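Session log. Operator J.P. requested a structure for one protein chain; no other inputs attached. Running the standard single-chain path with token output.
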Amino acid sequence: MIRLGKGEGSVTVAQAVALGTIQGLAEFLPISSSAHLVLAPWFLGWPDPGLTFDVALHMGTLLAVVAYFWRDWLCLVARGLLRPASGEGRLFWLLVAATVPGGIFGFLLEKQAGTVFRSPLLIAVMLMAMGGVLCLADSRCPRHKELEDTGRADGLWIGLAQALAIVPGVSRSGITMAAARVRHLSREAAARFSFLLSTPIILGAGVLELRHLAAADLDGAFWAGMLSSAVVGFLAIRFLLRYLVNHSFDVFVWYRFLLAFAVLVTVILR
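Structure written below.
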């Protein structure tokens, strides 16, 4: 087992793999990874591993997004530093600017993220609310812009939206994709921008949480959670980019509604 510290539970290797799988799927699909990592132990009666274990899962999803987009990032960084006026250079600096609001909110609200924001009732409300937002944004907004057409106003809008993802149930990928659709990006372009934007924010979250780790935490469960999160996350990215070419976000909207309903029923019955 991995002992995560005062006030937190112990995670077996099997539980770590399950949580890593959940993280890999829910980080990139618009269904909220933070909500699922709270709800899974709550539904199953597992000890809540707490925010410390998130470092393994965040490192896993960071590996996933870097492995998928490493060529894109090499090009973006090189053009951003050497040719900032080029299309890739402008996109690089847009991603940098769009990361700032989420980083500030994450730093200022870190304590709330680990306490009051982890209420199942609040999560259910946010799952439903953001499901409605995603549905409206996807169905009502035209989609004529691609990634290279993204401008400053688009980056600012999406970056501010990402800041709200500190609340479990909102979904970082969900709210950034919804914001991108409101700015008229195509579904695939919205997903690609969201995934690129996730790289620095996931890196920042992982680095921030590293201070909670002790050497004893780096055992089999830690690595199992990180590896499963990385593998499943990579597959989730590939799936969604292909899926959105010919499909809407409807299946994820309905999933959010059904999960919220299950949470509300469980709260009532308990």
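Operator note: The longest strand covers residues 2-3.
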